[in-house]
């Protein structure tokens, strides 16, 4: 009974607090309005989007949107920290003098017209059967998918500030492409029907090509090591077991696969990884559960797909086979993908990416936030190559991770053999990324036939199968030869298959090496294998066929084999990291706060991967390349960024100014940010040591993980580098009393983000200025205005407190007297303190409750609420 009463009391308290947030924030904005440059009408209406309690900050993170005429202003989301019933920190993004900037209050086009206009401009087909499923309010609706979107289409009126400083009335809506390639959130002008702005919730990382060199570096020497399977066995204690490359192993080149038992964290996943009803006992025996479903999408159609089954004992022990096509270890790869998605969920849950903060869970177990949004992780996705992506719609909508195959490492194999005539011999070729794989045991052997089409279209080559095929009977049962041309590879090979072809040889039409053919719009329908050969080899074959020669050939998989991105755990972590940074920046209902030019999303994602693959033997100057396994590099390879991650400037010398055109966008921009975070991480590890316990450790790596997560929560919408830096500094002030200010400043200043650095507009990469100076103030604590938050000189921590209260002055506070009063005004404790450094006040004699703490100095008085737990 006592527990029930306590629960009711807690829920009641939480409800009251939720109701008070709006008033607390309005009061704060009113007091500080002039400092913020806001007009009274700018703060009259606001909406509390979401809030969540942060254990590390001992405070509530509250996210608020500005309303004009009851309509939200896009990207006005402001972050507040409320502690002890007061605003402790604020990052305000409201539009100043907003009422004077609106262009209209009435829409000229309807919500449905806005959907049709967006579809037309985006180039998708016109909606069919479009209808309203729910009227949320007079300005907000939910439409069905109109056969153009995977999800229903929400539409609401918003205001968006444009480059002319005008707030334009617009319809905000989202369309998730049927092929999963884009999930566009767009603003359609409510007067003209034009698209004002759009951002893609699918972050496609396009890892493909290596970037240019920046400085001369040491050569990255070393041999790629492919470990044997079954290196370590772990006996199950009765729960689920998975054969994977486990935390913190980055890839098969970095360590061995292991059979791990019961890896689910009891706090983050209290009912295990195969539950979704909150009752003991698994609901699924496949790689599906509360946090993620992992399944293949070889067809590239985002539907269906198979998940490996662990049976009643949840034993997912499947072999890894690296000397064959990746499809032959699909179960093992999908298991690894499932494991690492769950690891990302469970580890970062400890640092505050929980239900109320917008994490990815089917059932939120009553812990706040919106459920029904587990991650759909797709293994060996047939929709592309040399890539990976993650889509992050707002909280309550599923995230989706697509992991692709990568081009084989090393030279192409010789899958084609000509069995007769003057062309007899083996030929180099590259298999297509779609269709059936080449056989590995019994070759496809038959005569070759050259395709002929009617040349009626734009193509001028009758052998490229871009127009209607005219010799279909000649192709039946043959290996069909096609010249590369004007149309997609998937279209051409499907056309040959429809005429009875058993395989296709594509002839390159340029003298370059053959390439791995992509599927295009039709490749998901192809069920036969295909390869590409060089122009020289192919032209010789075509000439023989045109001469009337009978050419008999065989096709078999001769390697090298594609590399499976599902086994590059750094890339999996990177993709999941996009979900974290997008859900935490601006709060879980936003998902669109990282669309500005100087945004660091790719950097946070790289850093997430680096953090979960750190090991006790690592050093700060090590070479840490991103994606070395997927790209076929050795473990000390340079990776796919402008440079590897290292604090050694002879390996990575990038600084803030390099984002001005010297790096790629957005990956290079993120890379420079992650370089700064890596500096900070290693400074903290040097100070506090490394802790291999990623969940509950106390090392410098754990401190860095907490600071970055808290910084994501504190920064405002559309942050730039300095916004991100200041949010981390503020997180340290709130959680740690500023204990690491000098260390954090030193790390960022080393890479050009010192005290005097300026950001300019976060929508402009070229107007910032780097600087290398560090604070000269005691403990590196800057004055209030320099911190970017409205606060006074005194920092009290922790608050709530268990009896020991620390007091610190930003500027030298000198001698002072601290007095604690109860809520009736009775003096409980008084103590002389010295605020030239941190002072400690012993309040352990006080009972649990709310008190008033007053600090009287020579020329100042500070009063605040103090909570004793």
TrEMBL record:
Answer yes or no on keyword RNA-binding. Answer: no
Signal peptide residues on this chain, from the entry's feature table: 1-18
One function term, GO molecular function aspect = zinc ion binding
Under Pfam families, the record lists: PA (PF02225), Peptidase_M36 (PF02128), Por_Secre_tail (PF18962)
Keyword check for Methyltransferase, yes or no: no
Originating species: Patiriisocius marinistellae
Gene3D superfamilies, per database record: 3.10.170.10, 3.50.30.30, Neutral Protease Domain 2 (1.10.390.10)
Q: Family membership, please give it.
A: Belongs to the peptidase M36 family.
Q: Where is this region: Disordered?
A: 364-399
* Taxonomic lineage of the native organism: Bacteria, Pseudomonadati, Bacteroidota, Flavobacteriia, Flavobacteriales
Q: Which GO terms describe its cellular component?
A: extracellular space
This protein's name? Peptidase M36
Please name the PANTHER family in this protein's record.
EXTRACELLULAR METALLOPROTEINASE MEP
Any one Gene Ontology BP term: proteolysis
In this chain, composition skew of type Polar residues spans 386-395
Q: Which cofactor does it need?
A: Zn(2+)
Secretion system C-terminal sorting domain ranges (all copies): 796-868
Q: Which domain of life does the UniProt lineage start with?
A: Bacteria
Q: Sorted alphabetically, which keywords does the UniProt record give?
A: Hydrolase, Metal-binding, Metalloprotease, Protease, Secreted, Signal, Zinc, Zymogen
What are the subcellular locations of this protein?
A: Secreted
Predominant subcellular localization, coarse grouping: secreted
Q: Where is coiled-coil annotated?
A: none
Domain PA: from-to ranges: 454-541
């Amino acid at each position: 009974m006592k527990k029930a009463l306590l629960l009711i009391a807690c829920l009641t308290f939480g409800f009251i607090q939720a109701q008070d947030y709006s008033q607390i924030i309005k009061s704060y904005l009113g007091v500080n309005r002039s400092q913020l440059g806001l007009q009274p009408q700018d703060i009259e209406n606001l909406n509390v989007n979401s809030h969540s309690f942060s254990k590390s900050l001992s405070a509530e993170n509250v996210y608020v949107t500005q309303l004009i005429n009851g309509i939200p202003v896009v990207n006005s989301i402001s972050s507040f920290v409320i502690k002890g019933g007061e605003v402790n920190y604020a990052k305000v993004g409201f539009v100043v003098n907003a009422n004077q900037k609106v262009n209209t209050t009435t829409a000229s086009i309807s919500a449905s017209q806005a959907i049709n206009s967006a579809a037309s401009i985006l180039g998708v087909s016109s909606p069919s059967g479009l209808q309203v499923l729910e009227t949320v309010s007079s300005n907000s609706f939910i439409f069905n998918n109109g056969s153009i979107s995977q999800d229903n289409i929400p539409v609401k009126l918003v205001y968006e500030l444009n480059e002319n400083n005008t707030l334009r009335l617009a319809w905000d809506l989202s369309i998730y492409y049927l092929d999963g390639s884009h999930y566009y959130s767009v603003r359609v002008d409510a007067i003209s029907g034009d698209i004002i702005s759009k951002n893609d919730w699918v972050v496609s990382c396009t890892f493909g090509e290596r970037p240019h060199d920046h400085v001369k570096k040491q050569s990255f020497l070393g041999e790629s090591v492919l470990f044997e399977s079954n290196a370590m066995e772990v006996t199950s204690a009765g729960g689920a077991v998975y054969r994977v490359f486990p935390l913190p192993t980055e890839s098969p080149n970095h360590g061995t696969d292991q059979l791990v038992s019961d890896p689910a964290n009891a706090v983050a996943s209290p009912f295990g990884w195969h539950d979704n009803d909150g009752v003991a006992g698994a609901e699924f025996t496949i790689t599906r559960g509360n946090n993620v479903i992992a399944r293949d999408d070889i067809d590239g159609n985002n539907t269906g797909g198979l998940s490996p089954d662990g049976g009643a004992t949840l034993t997912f022990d499947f072999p890894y086979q690296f000397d064959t096509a990746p499809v032959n270890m699909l179960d093992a790869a999908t298991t690894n993908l499932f494991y690492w998605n769950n690891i990302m969920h469970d580890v970062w849950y400890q640092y505050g990416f929980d239900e109320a903060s917008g994490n990815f869970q089917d059932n939120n177990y009553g812990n706040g936030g919106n459920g029904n949004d587990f991650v759909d992780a797709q293994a060996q996705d047939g929709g592309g190559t040399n890539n990976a992506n993650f889509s992050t719609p707002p909280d309550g909508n599923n995230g989706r991770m697509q992991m692709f195959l990568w081009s084989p490492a090393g030279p192409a194999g010789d899958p084609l053999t000509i069995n007769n005539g003057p062309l007899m011999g083996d030929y180099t070729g590259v298999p297509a990324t779609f269709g059936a794989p080449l056989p590995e045991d019994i070759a496809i052997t038959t005569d070759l036939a050259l395709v002929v089409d009617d040349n009626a279209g734009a193509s001028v080559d009758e052998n490229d199968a871009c127009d209607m095929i005219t010799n279909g009977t000649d192709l039946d049962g043959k290996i069909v030869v096609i010249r590369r041309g004007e149309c997609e590879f998937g279209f051409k090979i499907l056309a040959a298959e429809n005429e009875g072809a058993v395989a296709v040889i594509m002839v390159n039409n340029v003298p370059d090496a053959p390439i791995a053919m992509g599927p295009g719009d039709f490749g998901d329908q192809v069920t036969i294998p295909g390869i590409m050969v060089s122009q020289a080899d192919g032209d010789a074959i075509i000439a023989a066929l045109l001469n009337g020669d009978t050419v008999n050939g065989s096709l078999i998989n001769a390697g090298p084999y594609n590399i499976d991105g599902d086994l590059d755990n750094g890339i999996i972590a990177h993709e999941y990291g996009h979900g974290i940074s997008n859900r935490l920046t601006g709060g879980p209902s936003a998902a669109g706060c990282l669309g500005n030019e100087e945004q660091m999303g790719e950097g946070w994602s790289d850093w997430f991967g680096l953090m979960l693959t750190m090991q006790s033997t690592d050093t700060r100057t090590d070479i840490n390349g991103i994606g070395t396994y997927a790209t076929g590099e050795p473990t000390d390879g340079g990776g796919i960024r402008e440079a590897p991650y290292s604090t050694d400037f002879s390996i990575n010398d990038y600084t803030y100014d390099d984002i001005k055109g010297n790096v790629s966008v957005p990956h290079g921009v993120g890379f420079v940010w992650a370089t700064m975070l890596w500096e900070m991480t290693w400074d903290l590890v040097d100070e506090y040591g490394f802790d291999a316990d990623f969940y509950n450790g106390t090392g410098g790596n754990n401190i860095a993980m907490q600071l970055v997560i808290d910084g994501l929560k504190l920064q405002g919408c559309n942050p730039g580098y300095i916004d991100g830096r200041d949010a981390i500094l503020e997180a340290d002030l709130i959680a740690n009393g500023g204990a690491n200010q000098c260390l954090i400043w030193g790390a960022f200043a080393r890479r050009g983000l010192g005290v005097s650095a300026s950001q300019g507009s976060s929508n402009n990469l070229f107007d910032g200025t780097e600087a290398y100076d560090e604070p000269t103030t005691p403990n590196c604590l800057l004055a209030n205005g320099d911190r970017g938050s409205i606060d006074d000189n005194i920092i009290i921590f922790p608050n709530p407190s268990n009896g020991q209260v620390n007091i610190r002055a930003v500027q030298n506070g000198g001698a002072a007297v601290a007095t604690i009063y109860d809520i009736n005004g009775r003096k409980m404790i008084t103590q002389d303190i010295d605020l030239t450094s941190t002072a400690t006040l012993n309040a352990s004699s006080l009972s649990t409750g709310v008190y008033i703490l007053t600090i009287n100095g020579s020329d100042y008085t500070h009063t605040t609420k103090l909570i004793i737990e």
